[in-house]
Write a structure and sequence with these properties.
This protein is mainly alpha-helical and 186 residues long. It folds into two domains: 30 residues, no CATH class; 143 residues, Orthogonal Bundle (Tetracycline Repressor, domain 2), CATH 1.10.357. It has nine helices and no strands. The longest helix is centred in the middle third of the chain and has 22 residues.
Length: 186
């Protein structure tokens, strides 16, 4: 993958590079898709957590800025998210549909890795006190992170701190906090 990108990760290329038989590789990876899923899972960069305490706006801004940095500087993350989003449904496989377990493992790992820091902040006492009761954390994540990915994929402009602050302030205004952050006109 490092040498030839995603297209270079094939069963033939891996067996040739690793010096192993196809049968050996197929014992571990049933398809090239499963092989890619395993490679992606090992290469996912971690998300730096937000500070454990402090104002909700600052904690969300830290998380969003960290996520934006990963999206802007780790093309692998965008590739993985795009590849996953187009390749499988979000539901886990049924017992009769377990032909792609590594894809489902990768999807669960991404959700765990990237969602957990946001869930910790969005379910904190600070969030409980600042946001409207019943604020859905899944919708909140889409509201905050969706524009980062869309901005990068469609406009090609960086997700800088000012853009992240705009997203956080809009989120806080629309979900219950009445005072926008510095430099914003509610």
């Amino acid at each position: 993958m490092a040498e030839g990108g995603i297209d270079a990760v094939t069963i033939d290329a891996v067996t040739r590079t690793a010096g192993i038989a196809r049968a050996t590789l197929y014992r571990h990876f049933g398809t090239g898709t499963e092989l890619l899923a395993a490679a992606f899972e090992r290469l996912l960069p971690p998300v730096a957590p937000a500070p454990a305490h402090g104002p909700l706006r600052e904690r969300l801004l830290t998380l969003l800025t960290n996520q934006a940095h990963l999206i802007d500087h780790a093309p692998l993350q965008l590739t993985v998210l795009s590849w996953l989003g187009m390749s499988i449904a979000p539901t886990p496989p049924s017992p009769t549909q377990s032909d792609r377990p590594r894809l489902h493992t990768l999807r669960r790992r991404i959700i765990e890795l990237y969602r957990q820091p946001f869930d910790a902040v969005l379910t904190s006492d600070a969030a409980h006190n600042a946001l409207r009761p019943g604020t859905d954390t899944t919708a909140a994540l889409a509201h905050l992170i969706g524009p980062l990915i869309f901005n990068r994929l469609v406009t090609g402009t960086p997700n800088d701190e000012q853009f992240c602050a705009h997203l956080v302030d809009d989120f806080l205004i629309s979900h219950g906090q009445t005072t926008p952050g510095p430099g914003r006109n509610g």
